[in-house]
Amino acid sequence: MRADERPALAATDLTVQYRETTALAHVSLEARKGEIVALAGPNGSGKTTFVRAVLGLIPRSSGTVEVGGVRLETLDLVTRARAIAWMPQEEALGDNVPLLEYVQYGRYAHSPRFAPERAADRATARRILSELGFGGRERSGIHELSGGERQRLRLGRVLAQEAPVLLLDEPTSHLDMGYQLELLERVRRLVRSQGTTVVAAIHDLNLAARFADRIVVLHHGRTVAEGAPSAVLAPALLRDVWGVVADLRRDVRTGLPYLIPSLPTMAAPPSPAARGLRVHVVGGGGAAAPILRALVEDGYRVTVGAVPLFDTDSQTAEELGIAAATELPFAPLSPEVRARHRQLIAEADIVVVAPFPVGPGNLANLEDVPSEHPRMYLVESAGAGTRDFAGGAATRELGRLRAHATALDGVPALLRALSATPRAAHGEPNDR
After folding, report:
1. Mean pLDDT score, 112-123
2. Which of 25, 58, 80, 342 falls between 20 and 30 A from 127, CA-CA?
3. pLDDT band for position 426 (50/70/90)?
């Protein structure tokens, strides 16, 4: 086989055992130059075990690993670091080192031993920090970052290593949806521009389908599916591996498949405060999720809208069996979705506006809330200005609603206000 025909990474027949427990059973995976392979599966399926077995961080009962046709065990540590880079799922913080120094750790495999710091390495680290959104923060300490920021910084250190093969273990953990997409898009650009090979453990099957060329699904330490996303994604797979019933849809813009899961309604015993009242929550971006959970727990009849599919709010609604007006991700609200949203508002006894970020695409969420609704609450956060990404239009709409609504500071205050809501203010609840 010619060198250019060899897989960039070939793991063959990997088996890992802990005493009498088999954590990984005869798993094989090949990834070629310029390919993204997603390793998917539920928690405990063997994804992290596979990554660590490839790196040699845990002993293998059987199996071999080759990088560019060379057995990994035959390479010294420096050569191995130049060949394959690893981004762990979690990492102890250690000292509060500056961000620039942390990213520059990735250059050690390329620096001569005992040589002074090289300007080129420092320039590479600065460029990566800027690309990841940390420009101007080179001297900040890593302890000053949020969990999501630290995850992006770990990717920066891996990118600085400039290895032809990247192993990413749950790279999107701790990240909200926007940063998940941004991080994986950055990885995809790297693959396309430099021919880097990426094997990434990702628990979200829809996210894997969006970015990977191939998906390998593990379950109980064994390979149960492998292939292109269009061939792997299927309701039967989600049912058999994740135990979730789902519908298969296809994005009309990209042609990519995606699964919409559904779970049985989690019924909560009604509390005296709820009294059968129907509450509609206007949300998006995860801002409504804690409100939805609290209202369901108290026994209110809850709806939500209009929220994007796969957003935290829509996923929470799926989990809780809440009726929702939903739109495709990153798409402006369609007339049909807006009509559904207005219907839910009209049917509600109470409307709650969550402190969600508002941009041009979802400004209609606020526009469709009528000022004359008899009972309306605004759950405030740090202020309207911090969530107005619609050129001031969101601030104006919130001002319109605030003139007719009760502003409250947080979910506990909302629950207290609802518990004191006079029954006569709404009339008798019905079964619409």
Report:
1. 78
2. 80
3. very low
